Amino acid sequence: MTQVSTSRDIGQLKRQARTVRSEILKMLTEAGSGHTGGSLSAADIVTALYFHKLRHNPKDPAWKERDRFILSKGHAAPLLYTALALSGYFDKSLLKTLRKIGSPLQGHPCSKLLPGVEVSTGSLGQGLSIANGIAMGLKMDGLNSRVYCLLGDGETQEGQVWEAAMSASHYRLDNICAIIDNNGLQIDGHCCDVMALEPIVDKWAAFGWHVIDIDGHDMASIINALDEAETIKGKPTAIVARTVKGKGVSFFEGKAKYHGITPTSEELEKALVEIEDIDNG
Amino acid sequence: MGEKQKSEIKTQNIATRDAYGEALLELGKKRNDVVVLDADLSGSTKTAGFAKAFPDRFYNMGISEQDLIGTAGGLSLAGKLPFASTFAVFETGRAWEQIRQTIAYSHLNVKLVATHSGITVAEDGASHQAIEDVALMRVLPNMTVIVPADGIETKQVIAAIAEYHGPVYVRLGRSKVPVVMPEDYKFSIGKAHTFHIGKDANIIAAGIMVSVALSAAENLKKEGIDAGVINMSTIKPLDNDTVLRAAKASGLIVTAEEHSVIGGLGGAVSEFLSENYPVPVKRIGIKDTFGCSGPSDELMKLYGLTADDIIKIIKGALKK
Fold first, then answer.
1. Domain locations in chain A as residue ranges
2. Same domain flag for B197 and B160
3. Which chain A residues are within 8 Å of B71, Cβ to Cβ?
4. Which of A204, A227, A270, B149 is deepest in the core (most CB within 10 A)?
5. Which residues of chain B have pLDDT under 50?
6. Number of domains in chain B
7. Average pLDDT, chain A
8. In this complex, do A121 and B66 lie within 8 Å of one another by their Cβ atoms?
9. What is the rounded CA–CA span in Å between residue B161 and residue B107?
């Protein structure tokens, strides 16, 4: 799927991203707890993956030749759940059960409970190693499926991420595409104040990765970057997606506070209106 | 002792890590889904033989245990049967949370086979002597924990866990250990091997302490004390039936392990008996302290892990 997407496709994806954001906000309001900011910042990326790029079959989640998506930043579970529900992995009504007793929609994704979740995540820093292992296995089997791994920028403060970055490069895992949701914020504040990350692009490049630096809310840029990643041979690709935490809701945007706070019902009402006017490319 | 006899004993008494290396090779020939990962210790963990025979199915992850575990998890998700090996202290300590989150919670089919456990790592000292690894693995839901007693059992264990779907931790050692299991022994997960059930005491042992327990029981027999010996190689799930049978037969249980007395075999047996059939339990192991450098036989004496120590404890308990 390396053809340039038509503007009609882009338009559809942008609309889908709005739906994704609305569903995230609704489920989080219903749940009363969960991670709003980081779900919204990666919404365009995950929409592009699930509704355009990924070769997957919601009717057969274990299809051997599927592309894999690993949500290393597991706290963006509401985003993953929404993408899975809208793709048809399970009924959308299940989204209302987020974080409730007996629900397969755990606070952080649990692969044993929910088909479509490749592996349980939530403790940061572990997804890229897992993605590498899958990529190695796919190569051993001669499959050309690809593995996408979404990391938070703050998450890359975990040392294991760089162990994995080294491994992907050492083993020339060109079927791996890491996407860093660079929203610049973490729970305690701005990443640059908590533990500086820049220069992010140079870091990944120094570890032997092909790096693409994009506006993570520009749908056409996201798709072009995903297409470009597929053409890179002999090394893994990292897409550094510059995003805004809480993107789409003005009173959440750029606020570290909304990392783990959910909307009130009044906020939800206002937010849903704003989502309709979001500028994502 | 003639030259011939000497060499026979030498080939029999191998370290469990050597048996692991051989078992991996055999398994690799039988199954092409077997992949092996190591963290720069393949010469010591004996995965190097597999690496040489099957270079396309071996991944050296370098000195990065957390990545080792995650990558092994990923390979299992791609349908492979990964064996991830390094020293026990690094595998279970450095990468504990990776094992918890990625392997145990997701119930991935990853075999964690660690070598250089316990104080018999010897001269390298406390930094390298894992005395808490069984406790760290045993506390994890979904995890199976196995401590083979000798080379024969190690080979059986590797074959058995390859057929089992789910996470398993296998604890192996660095030093040569005497052969204790019969040639025709067949291991199955969760089933202890009973050498003998004693009327006066029963020693439930694991790993290298099985041979020590057997030698203690033999000496006690000469003094008219009937002490049984059980090889509890699967620490989790514990063979409750066998523990119960031993407790009912003797009323005195002694556990013996080259591990902390907290959280390992002694812990598991005590927890079960205290709730189901309370009898006195004496735990032989490392007494909540770190190890130190020295020759392994001297360390075994220093930390009270010899046959004489077991004899003393049993006699003392029987006097009361």
1. 7-275
2. no
3. 129-130, 132-133, 136, 164, 167
4. B149
5. 1-11
6. 2
7. 95
8. no
9. 14
Does the pTM surpass 0.90? The reply is yes
Contacts of A130 in chain B (CB under 8 A): 70-71, 73-74, 77, 102
Determine whether the interchain pair A133/B57 forms a contact, defined as Cβ–Cβ distance below 8 Å. no
Q: How far is A157 from chain B (nearest CA, A)?
A: 14
For chain B, the residue count is 320
- The residue from B140, B171, B202 where one domain ends is B171
Per CB-CB distance under 8 Å, the chain B contacts of A171 are 59
Q: Which of B66, B76, B107 sits opposite A163 (nearest CB)?
A: B66
ipTM of model: 0.95
The residue in chain A having the minimum alpha-carbon distance to the alpha carbon of residue B59 is A171
B33/B136 same-domain check: yes
Whether residue B127 lies inside any domain: the answer is yes
**Any idea which fold A7-275 has?**
Rossmann fold (3.40.50)
Residues B129 and B249 in one domain: no
Q: What per-residue confidence (pLDDT) applies to B308?
A: 98
Lookup: tokens for A161: 């991420």
